[in-house]
Structures are given as structure tokens and as C-alpha cells.
Amino acid sequence: MSIIDIENLRYDYVRAAEEGNVTVSAIRGIDLSVEPGSFTAVIGRNGSGKSTLAKNLNGLLLPTEGVVRVDGWDTRDDEHIWDVRQAAGMVFQNPDNQLVASIVEDDVAFGPENLGVEPEEIREIVDQSLTAVNMYEFREKSPHFLSGGQKQRVAIASVIAMKPKCIIFDEPTAMLDPQGRKEIMKIIEHLHEQGTTIVLITHFMDEAVRADRIVIMNDGDVLMDGTPEEVFSEPAKIRSVDLDVPMAVELADRLRDQGVKVPKNVITQEDLVDFICQFK
Ligand code: ADP
Ligand code: MG
């Protein structure tokens, strides 16, 4: 069974204006399923519907049309909205919107407390979750004094504490410096290795190539869906929707123009270095 199963999802924002209601169709009928334990990256230009899709994956928004099932639960089923939210955790771009308590560990305890977990077990879960994101030593600090990257790690710990099967990250590194980005990516890859299903929305191509599947959104629709190798083998199509291709793909393409036979599966910097080193 898929952990996320989307059938013909449409989502319209309706806004009241003087001249009558204005409807924006943010998602225009997409089908998508996500397998347990997989790592999917979602990319697409601003306004292509990525965040709207993300919010439909844990019941923060409900379909205008179509069905979204998370771990088997229909997100429109009121009685199981907490099952949906627990199965699919969300991490947003700005951790300030996600941290509510004045002490780091209270923030992380918030989720399990709401799930009715016993206090002793909560203590253990909080410690484990903070350790998993390398923030244990900051457990008694106020989030106020943390850097953006540290706050984002606490936000991730708060989600981990709910023991979700799947975590949806909506541009979690967009506000961070390169070092902060690297640390978040390391945590995401580690969670994936441990079996958590990952959906990562990002505009950094070097992050997207880490996934085992890339979904490209355009104008509320899925434009491409495949392995990084498949997707980046059509650089022109990607550029046509205002997206960059990863640096290594770009370089490999230029080498091919010069007659060097670079295999199609060279997409990360490591791949390219390995390819070049065989000529040493
Ligand atoms: P992305 O995350 O890819 O940038 P979004 O899902 O945020 O895209 O937005 C998709 C479309 O929906 C855009 O046209 C955007 O302007 C519109 N939109 C997003 N949020 C709202 C909202 N709260 N009200 C009205 N329109 C919205
Ligand atoms: Mg967005």
C-alpha cells in the first residue's frame, strides 16, 4: 500500500473580492502515489502549486475535488484527521512559524503530549528526537537564541517526536546559509536511511538529485516524474519551465558537446568526479 495516494486532486483558492469571488486553481487534477520508505523531491517554479500540494498531504488543506489518502486514511475524514497528521509530519520553510514554546524541549514534547503519551516516555522521545538532530545540548535554551538552522533542526525534532511514517519538507533550507543547508540535508538523508518516507520540496537542484524520484510541478500539474537520471536527461524541458539543471548535469552536457562520452547517469558532483578520475 502506498503511504500517500492522490487521485485526481484539484485545489482551488477562493477569495472574495469586490467584483465577486476570485478563484485560483492551484492544483489542477493530479494523480500521484508515494511508496513507503521512498525519497521524493518536488521541484517547480514559484506559484506552481508545491506548497498547496504539501498542505494537502497532511490535511492542512482539503481537496476541492479528488481524494488524498495518507496511510490509508482519507484526509477529508474528520474522525481520522489526527491519524493523518501523525502519519505525515510537515516541516515548513520558516521554523519561527512552527516553534511555539519558550523552551526547546517543551516544543518537542508538545506533539507527543497531545497524542497522550505517558510523561516518562515523553522524556525519552524528546531526548531521542533532539539527539537525532544534534540539538540535545540546547534542550533547555529558548528557541529565540538559536540560529535559523538550529531552529529548523528543533522544528524537525518536534516532527520526529510524533514518530511519523512520512515527513513532508516544504523548502526547509530556503532561509539557511550553506552550512545550515548541509546539516538539514544530512538529517533528511539519515531519516530516509532509517526508513522514514521523505517528500522534499526544494528549489536547490543539488538537493533534488539526492532523492530517488523527482516530481516536477508546473502550473498546478505534474510536468515530469521519474528518477533523477530520467528527469535530468531532458535538460531543455527543465529549462523551459524556468528551472536550473544541477551543475554536474550542465558540465556533463558541455563535455558531450565537446565529444566526451559522458554517461547519462552522471548527475551529481560525485558522479562527475568519479567519471573524470577514471582518466587519471
Ligand atoms: P509554490 O509553493 O509552488 O510557490 P503555491 O502552492 O504557494 O506554489 O501557490 C500556487 C498558486 O496558488 C499560486 O498561483 C498562488 O498565488 C496561489 N495561492 C497560494 N496560496 C494562496 C492563498 N492563500 N490564496 C489565494 N491564492 C493562493
Ligand atoms: Mg511554496
Automatic annotation (TrEMBL):
Its main location: membrane. Keywords: ATP-binding, Cell membrane, Membrane, Nucleotide-binding, Translocase, Transport. GO terms for molecular function: ATP binding; ATP hydrolysis activity; ATPase-coupled transmembrane transporter activity. Residues 9-244 form the ABC transporter domain. It is found in: Cell membrane. Coiled coil: none annotated. It is a peripheral membrane protein. It holds the Pfam family ABC_tran. Signal peptide: none annotated. SUPFAM superfamilies: P-loop containing nucleoside triphosphate hydrolases. Belongs to the ABC transporter superfamily. NCBIfam families: ECF_ATPase_1. This is Energy-coupling factor transport system ATP-binding protein.
